[in-house]
Design goal:
By secondary structure, the protein is mostly helical. The protein is built from five helices and two strands, in the order ααβααβα.
């Protein structure tokens, strides 16, 4: 940029980091989760024929979408589990168990539809079975990496 006198000016610095950087600094475990999801998703793309992404950028965006969707599912599932634990009558326990099952099964359908809605034919997570296995792999990998990082590197 040049000023009114023709001298070169440096761009002014912002008053602080942008919203994405502030979020990343405040939520490092979520950033790590997205990286884990990208790795697992790209392994699935490579080895599971029904899981397709047209490029790395789309797989990264899909990982972010999966992170958001799975966090919401975990919140709803947690509420359903709490409802099941707090149910005192047999009919309340049965209703809560059915609700928990609906959340578990329905979340996979929601994930499939959400990915289709956002990315169309550019990304496919396959069918119900492949998305269920993918979600399990994502959650297991996330848990393993979190456990590894919590214990520190003193054991390595």
């Amino acid at each position: 940029m040049t000023g009114t006198d023709g001298a070169r000016q440096t761009p002014t610095a912002r008053s602080g980091p942008g919203p994405v950087r502030r979020w990343a600094r405040g939520n490092p475990s979520d950033v790590i989760d997205v990286f884990v999801y990208v790795v697992v998703l790209n392994l699935a793309i490579e080895y599971v024929p029904s899981v397709i992404s047209e490029g790395f950028t789309l797989s990264l965006l899909t990982a972010v979408l999966l992170k958001v969707a799975l966090e919401l599912v975990l919140v709803v599932k947690g509420r359903a589990v709490n409802r099941l634990r707090s149910a005192t009558t047999p009919s309340g326990k049965v209703a809560s168990a059915i609700l928990l099952w609906l959340v578990a099964a329905g979340s996979k359908i929601v994930v499939l539809e959400l990915v289709d809605l956002v990315f169309g034919d550019a990304v496919s997570l396959g069918g119900f079975v492949s998305v269920t296995l993918l979600v399990i792999a994502l959650l297991v990998a996330r848990s393993a990496v979190r456990r590894l990082l919590e214990t520190g590197s003193d054991g390595l």
